[in-house]
Amino acid sequence: MPTKSVLELANWNEDQEITLLLSLLGKDVSHWQDKTAATQLREMDWVRFLRLTEHHRVVPTVYLQLKTLNHPFIPAELLRNLQAQYHRNTLRMLHLQAEAERLTRLLIAHGIRVLMLKGPALAQQLYGDVSLRTSKDIDLLIAPDDMDEAEHWMKEAGYASKSGEVRVLGSWKWKDHHASYLHPQKRVEIELHWRLHPDGGGEPSFDELWNCRKMGKAAGTSRQVPLGPADNRTVMTSCMYTLGSEHQFLYLSAHGARHGWFRLRWLVDIDRLAVCAVDWEALLPMMRRYGGLPAGGQAWALAAALLGTPIPEPMCPASATRQAHRLALSALAFMQASVPAPYPIAHGSGTGRLAPSEPLHSRALAEQAEAAPSVCGTCGEAAMLATSGVTSITEDASNDDHSPMSTATRCAPITPAVASSQVMTRNTAAAHQPVSRTYLLSLKEPRHRLWYLISRLFPSTGDSAVFPLPRQLHFLYIPLRPFLWLKRRFSKH
Description:
Blueprint: H1 4-10, H2 16-25, H3 32-35, H4 38-42, H5 46-55, H6 59-69, H7 76-109, E1 115-117, H8 119-127, E2 138-141, H9 147-156, E3 160-161, H10 172-175, E4 178-183, E5 188-193, H11 206-211, E6 214-217, E7 224-226, E8 234-236, E9 239-242, H12 245-258, H13 264-273, H14 280-289, H15 293-307, H16 316-319, H17 322-338, H18 364-368, H19 380-387, E10 390-392, H20 395-398, H21 416-427, E11 434-436, H22 437-442, H23 446-455, H24 461-466, H25 477-492
Helix pairs in contact: 1-15, 1-17, 2-5, 6-7, 12-13, 12-15, 13-15, 15-17, 17-19
């Protein structure tokens, strides 16, 4: 099935700002200047282009590409803005890398095995440089049985739980997948994972992930510390472990699919992973075993259509199915629903520059990008999936990767036009990045759908927040589950 049909059906080719952004995110942009007419660049909505770049968290890549191209019609103000964000992100990523190494060293010293998810370790693994990817927090994966001890040492390191939810019975180990912690002085957020994904879906055990781990070098001085009972070998504490390449694809494709791929940066990760040393032949049965074929096929279909990613031969059958095509269209609908609409202020026609009233320097643009009410070019089942049974994307999606650029938003000068736009953003916050339960279930294979529906009958940490009970009475959450679920539902409305 030709991947071009995905873009043609979604009408993405008609959006010149997103087309330019996609061209810059591809690996080969040497033909960019030949294909882009001067008139197109003159009419480019550069403010919207900036907002798209910030929304999709791809500022480092876009800045370096535009700087290299050095085209006369690219506004100097835009480059200065991107440069400032690039430098802030570099400092932020180095800070996160140092803190991740400190926490990893602490946990390993007490016999707790740790794998790094996303963040600086993934930036180093896929991009070769921590400054080339953005991240808002540090994600650490540990074995479920180590959670209590790891939580103790997190508190010893100065971190406090953000949720404060009480874990109910043992269902939290497979219904939930992470807990969040914040260091009040360093303002660093840690997500401590004991699973890769929520909802008890199929995934490799921690032991399997640990046995296939890869080593990534981190900043710092090397020292050797003996491990506890979990591993009697010694490791270089300046090293952090990441997922193996095959497990990395399984994780990144499922993570992006679960969030509707509303950030292009997740697809760029897939594009970079496509050229890494991955045993694609071994990955295919792994995807079948853990129900990763729908999300994997969707990831390849989107990456090939949007970024021109070459699909490895063993992965071609997964990306060419009707299901992959349908899921790709659904993701495009979600992505279009979340991108910023054209800026309402008129541009200086024919100048290739920004109108004086356009506050390009304002970080408030990043906040405006968080919600756009219109969905353009939706089609068929994709439109149905994007609008029927709408719920919010999981909580970690709505908070995911608010990069350091957005932290400057609160102190940036805001013009009346920007302020009115922010009011509109707040009013539409409820519709922020919509996704449907139908779509989420369509990502699961039949056996995992059944297990997901059965899991809804078991208590969750949210039940204790609605109706607190002493630990010795937690067994009552099982018969109370339907009533507590209904209470949360009606409270939301």
